[in-house]
Write a structure and sequence with these properties.
By secondary structure, the protein is an all-alpha fold. The protein has helices at 2-23, 29-43, 58-88, 95-117, 121-129, 131-159, 167-188, 200-233. It contains 8 helices and no strands.
Length: 234
């Protein structure tokens, strides 16, 4: 699973982003290559951060620590790119896409910080031994980073064709994701003697329904726009 969300899923998102920016002539090709090299160098070693619950030899433990630092270098490199990207973003860049991608970046920062914290033995025991924390981290990666980015990318492409995704559907989905993350975070705090959150399971269930409704709403709105476009053409 590590090589899915830290490997080809994340690589695909960066590929889509840089492909879009390249079409707008906003970033040089060398920038793409540098980021690809840095990410490729980190994706293998960071796998060790996912198995710290095992009794790893000292050499592998040290490699895991270095992997956490390497991921921080990826974050620093991306932060250094932001002024260049922001300077060259086209004027018709959708606000909705901007909001979604801002949340992607925040989620990415939180993900890197959590990975760094996981190298601390005291914290890694909780991280890998408490189910809500594990689920919350996976949701942060798959929903907060991958799903938000893809929705933002689709919305940007459709916005340029004057058919953006439904804002209502998108924000219902986003609200469901954020509620789930907050509830899982509160459940994770139970390991340090926080009072258990009442009705947490029901809230998670309704948040999942909200996410489904948001995606269905968004999909139906796209189909409706396509039908309207065909009708106007005829």
């Amino acid at each position: 699973m590590h090589f899915q969300y830290n490997g080809w899923f994340l690589f695909s998102c960066f590929g889509l982003l840089f492909s879009y920016l390249s079409k707008k002539n906003t970033l040089p090709l060398i920038t793409n290559r540098k980021l690809f090299i840095v990410m490729t160098a980190t994706v293998g070693p960071t796998y060790l951060l996912s198995i710290l619950w095992l009794k790893l030899p000292a050499a592998l433990r040290l490699t895991a620590d270095i992997a956490g630092v390497l991921q921080l270098l990826v974050l620093i490199y991306i932060v250094r790119l932001l002024p260049l990207v922001k300077k060259n973003i086209p004027l018709n860049f959708s606000k909705t896409t901007g909001y979604l991608w801002s949340m992607v970046f925040i989620a990415f920062i939180i993900k890197i910080i959590l990975q760094l914290l996981s190298i601390i033995p005291f914290l890694s025991g909780y991280a890998f031994g408490f189910r809500p924390i594990v689920i919350g981290y996976l949701h942060l990666s798959f929903l907060g980073i991958i799903s938000f980015f893809i929705l933002g990318y689709i919305n940007q492409e459709l916005s340029e064709m004057k058919h953006p995704l439904s804002k209502t559907g998108l924000w219902i989905f986003v609200a469901g994701v954020l509620v789930q993350e907050l509830i899982l975070m509160f459940q994770g705090l139970e390991v340090i003697e926080f009072k258990p959150l009442r009705y947490a399971d029901m809230i998670l269930f309704y948040a999942s329904i909200a996410m489904g409704i948001g995606l269905i709403w968004t999909t139906l709105s796209v189909k409706k726009d396509k039908r309207s476009a065909r009708t106007s053409e005829t």
